[in-house]
Design goal:
Structural class: alpha/beta
Shape: globular
Largest sheet: 6 strands, mixed
Distance between the termini: 15 Å
Radius of gyration: 20 Å
Number of helices: 11
Low-confidence stretches: 259-265
């Protein structure tokens, strides 16, 4: 048994972008999205599927950081108007579609994967979003359909040089341009990895500020920047961390693609 969790808008927007100029763009998007899901169900040997959508409303992250996701291009109007029909076509194809009011799809995907893992069910999150890499463990992997990558713990380490659990601390130091989250000025990926390699966690970096030149070989300029911007780093860490403890009320039986089950999360 394995669960495929699809980041709905991540997949749909990428597929739509490739066919946007077609007079049958919405139909082509639905058909291609269904084909991609079926392909990954077979390739990854998944028995259950959930496709997670979200409402386009402000969330708690916007309240803490109004510039969250600032600058992202808006969804094409034609696609926005056709989402209900797209979702209907996916449901007709047997794909369970779900959204949790007031929460981003990323958090719902994280919560579903975590609850499945706790129940002994491994899962694969289908998305190109690097943010899901923080969740990777022995029972959660991330698949990028478009470059055929399947990221387990070893693959995450090979890509970032860090363990999955260190990634939110890494983004807290460097910032995350994808979501328009601030980092610590003067700290890029190399310095952030250097700090975490020696201190392992952001909290330990901040506790050991005066010893950092000796421990991690960083300059006094980096230490001063951390002293001046540590609160910004902690804010970004909270914003980058996915919430994996949401009550979902999803019945695993409803997610089955090949087999039956009655366990409820």
């Amino acid at each position: 048994m394995q669960l495929l969790i699809v980041d709905a808008m991540n997949l749909i927007r990428r597929v739509y972008a490739a066919v946007e100029n077609s007079p049958t763009a919405l139909e082509a998007t639905a058909s291609r999205a269904i084909a991609i899901i079926n392909s990954n169900v077979g390739r990854l040997e998944c028995s259950h599927v959930a496709m997670i959508f979200e409402d386009h409303v402000e969330t708690w992250r916007h309240r803490f950081w109004p510039d969250y996701k600032k600058g992202r291009p808006p969804m094409p109007e034609k696609l926005q108007n056709g989402l209900d029909e797209l979702r209907h076509q996916l449901e007709l194809a047997g794909v369970y579609c779900f959204r949790q009011e007031g929460w981003e799809a990323d958090d719902v995907c994280a919560a579903l994967a975590n609850k499945a893992a706790l129940a002994g069910v491994p899962s694969v999150i289908l998305s190109t979003d690097k943010g899901f890499c923080q969740l990777v463990n022995s029972r959660i992997r991330v698949a990028n359909h478009f470059d055929r990558q399947l990221l387990d713990e070893a693959a995450v380490y090979a890509r970032f040089g860090l363990q999955p659990g260190q990634l939110v601390d890494f983004w807290a130091l460097t910032g995350d341009t994808t979501n328009h989250l601030p980092g610590v000025p003067g700290i890029g990926p190399k310095t952030a990895a250097q700090l975490l390699d020696h201190c392992h966690r952001l909290d330990r970096v901040l506790i050991a500020l005066e010893q950092l030149p000796e421990l991690a070989g960083v300059t006094s300029r980096i230490v001063d920047s951390l002293k001046n911007h540590w609160q910004q780093a902690l804010l970004t860490r909270e914003l980058a961390r996915l919430s994996d403890d949401l009550p979902l009320g999803i019945n695993l039986h409803d997610l089955r693609f090949c087999v039956r089950d009655t366990e409820t999360f």
